[in-house]
Amino acid sequence: MMDFDDWWLLAIPLLFGMGWLARSIDANKRIKETSKLPSSYFKGLNHLLGGEPDKAIDALIDVARVDTDTIDLYFALGNLFTQRGEIERAIRVYQSLLDRVDLPADARESALSKLGTAFLNGGLFDRAEATFEQLAADPKASLRAHAQSQLLYIYQSQQEWQQAIDTATAMDNSAEQAVAVAHFHCELALEALAQSNWLIAEREIDAALQLRPQSIRARILRGRWYAQQGRTAEGLAAWMLLAQDQPVSLPLMVEDVMAAHEALGTPELGLSFLYSELLKSGSVDVLNAWLAAQAKHGDAALLTEQLATVFGQHPSLNALDKLLTHRLQSSNTDRPSEDALVQQLIKKQVQQLSKYQCTHCGFEAARYYWQCPACTHWESYPPKRLEELSKRERTRVQM
């Protein structure tokens, strides 16, 4: 009678034999599956490995027409070409898939979406728009929301504001979406104002304010709507009320306010108002507007003292630069002064600190944008220059 250890000695060869048999069966199965693949499949792979992508695509397209199981391969190939920047080849891949009448619905949606993205990456906005419109038109499409967001991006890029409004309205409402739609209406109002179409401009401004009653941009445009019709006093009243309600808005409309005072024949009042606000805020934009108005309507004899007061209350490189510039212009000597040497040192730094910065992506710009040119977010620029923001941050730390 065999003991337990003897049985294990007999079982080891048996287990080895069963493993060999299973591996042989699996290998035979793989050979049978491989033999079913069309010859074009292997030709395509050979061309791809041989650095002949055009021939590879042609060969693999033949495979796609007869074998549904190769769909994933084509998506991978399309993604590869897109990543490499070979947009035309990616487009050919996705179009070949869409030509199939037996393509599953979910694969067709994905191919449409990727085709639209390829068109977009290639700068073919019209074709991208048509592709995403086809996908967005199907209320059952799982990628419908993605298609709508892509259409919204296209319409904004092409400044097709009414289409952008219609698309955004059909999407899920959110606070960020309301901000964007309000600006779309403001863009249409600007176009109408440029054409002196007062009715359309008023309608679009009202629509923006209905979405966002405290919209700074819409309220600024309301003042311009009055002013451009010759109703300057009403426009000035609208801007002054906005400055009272939202003081942060003043740097964005200082030129409008001063122009209104000049049109009304009260430039001294405008100059006094700007200087008063400058002493309160130290805003670079208010400073620039006040200096421009001072050169036209102010007393040159008081300028040095006033600039010194501004610099004393709001010490900044911008204010110092303006003060040194005035001192140099008032100097009668041609010899380089200490002020001139100091000004040369701070000039480049002033240029850097005079920019606006997007709070979403960090993109810097010399002028103010309602929509960031880099990340396309709306109202991501604070109406303050970099130096003002850094000064405010230092003040918070000290507190």
Number of helices: 20
Q: Strand fraction band?
A: under 5%
Given helix and strand content, the structural type is: mainly alpha
The helix/strand order is HHHHHHHHHHHHHHHHHHHEEH
Shape type: elongated
Radius of gyration: 34 Å
Average pLDDT confidence is 81
Kindly, what is the distance between the CA atoms of the first and last residues, rounded to a whole number of angstroms?
Answer: 92 Å
Assembly state:
single chain
Unreliable parts: 7-12, 24-37, 394-399
Using DSSP, what is the number of strands? 2
- Give the strand order, joined by hyphens, for the main sheet: 1-2
The major sheet is characterized as: 2 strands, antiparallel
Please estimate the helix content.
Answer: over 70%
What does this entry look like structurally?
With 399 residues, this protein is mostly helical. It has 20 helices and two strands. A two-stranded antiparallel ribbon has the order 1-2. The longest helix is centred in the N-terminal third of the chain and has 33 residues.
Summarize this structure briefly.
Helices cover 74% and strands 1% of the residues. The protein has 399 residues and is mainly alpha-helical. Mean pLDDT is 81; it is low at 7-12, 24-37 and 394-399.
How is this fold's topology laid out?
Elements: H1 4-36, H2 39-49, H3 53-66, H4 71-83, H5 87-98, H6 105-121, H7 125-136, H8 144-157, H9 161-170, H10 175-194, H11 198-211, H12 216-228, H13 232-245, H14 254-264, H15 267-281, H16 284-297, H17 300-313, H18 317-330, H19 338-353, E1 356-357, E2 364-365, H20 386-398
Antiparallel strand pairs: 1-2
